[in-house]
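PROTEIN DESIGN WORKSHEET
SECTION A - STRUCTURE
LENGTH: 284
TOKENS:
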């Protein structure tokens, strides 16, 4: 369905809007992009593939999960396995995944900056009190690296989140792959697919993926989702009016109340203090 939708959009863009879509923002293994390339909607005009910056984070989690599964029972050089307490747990994968995503998001001005941030994460994680390796970490009082942040003060960083060297050597190829220059160049635009996924979520709340529906029901659900996404729930009153059905005061007030609450929730989540609180919750 996704492939058909994307190819339709590209093939009619000139006819309908007189525009060419020359940048494709999609997943790393997107079949849709391959279908668009095969279609050649603009003749020999090249369509460039871009990566959503959120997919760097997804790749980190996927690749580390594969490493964890592949060598779960094997003994590493130090005589211990990869998994276990203080080693590559699922919680640690989530933490590395989140931090790698932040490394991309905060450095979209330069491939070199992203690459430095990714390797700073690696060496920060392998660092210990006896062998600190924070040369790539940002310095100064505002640094996310507490070791560098505490330099010159009385506080001492104890490296509570370090991973053993043998574990870090096992996952080092993942960091090498994700710091590839060609891959990082596709993330410099700094954009994500969150808007698309948000629309999808609105649609699937009306028409769940695991329930079969007929085409008319599917069309109706998509129309309702898109109208609500663009105009808010109050659009339902306008639709009913077009159908000759007059809505009462209670329904209008209810739809407005839902839309106002949605807007307040969005504004709250966009505040700096709320963003910082979400990051702190993620660090725990």
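SECTION B - SEQUENCE
RESIDUE ASSIGNMENT:
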């Amino acid at each position: 369905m996704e492939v058909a939708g994307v190819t339709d959009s590209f093939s009619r863009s000139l006819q309908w809007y007189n525009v060419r879509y020359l940048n494709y923002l999609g997943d790393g293994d997107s079949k849709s992009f391959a279908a668009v390339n095969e279609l050649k909607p603009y003749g020999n005009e090249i369509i460039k593939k871009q990566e959503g910056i959120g997919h760097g984070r997804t790749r980190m989690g996927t690749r580390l999960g594969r490493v964890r599964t592949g060598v779960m029972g094997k003994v590493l050089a130090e005589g211990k396995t990869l998994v276990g307490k203080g080693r590559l747990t699922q919680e640690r994968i989530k933490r590395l995944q989140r931090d790698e995503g932040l490394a991309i998001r905060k450095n979209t001005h330069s491939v070199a900056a992203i690459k430095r941030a990714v390797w700073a994460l690696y060496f920060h994680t392998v660092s210990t009190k006896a062998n600190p390796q924070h040369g790539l970490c940002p310095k100064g009082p505002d640094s996310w690296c507490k070791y560098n942040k505490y330099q010159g003060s009385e506080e001492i960083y104890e490296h509570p989140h370090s991973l053993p060297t043998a574990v870090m050597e096992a996952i080092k190829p993942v960091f090498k792959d994700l710091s590839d220059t060609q891959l990082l160049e596709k993330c410099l635009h700094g954009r994500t697919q969150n808007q698309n996924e948000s629309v999808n979520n609105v649609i699937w709340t009306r028409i769940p993926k695991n329930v079969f529906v007929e085409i008319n029901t599917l069309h109706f659900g998509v129309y309702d989702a898109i109208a609500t996404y663009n105009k808010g729930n109050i659009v339902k009153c306008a639709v009913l009016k077009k159908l000759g059905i007059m809505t009462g005061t209670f329904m209008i007030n209810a739809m407005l109340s839902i839309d106002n609450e949605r807007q307040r929730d969005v504004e709250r989540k966009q505040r700096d203090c709320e963003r910082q609180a979400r990051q702190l919750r993620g660090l725990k």
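SECTION C - NOTES
The mean pLDDT is 85.
The chain is about 60% helix and 5% strand.
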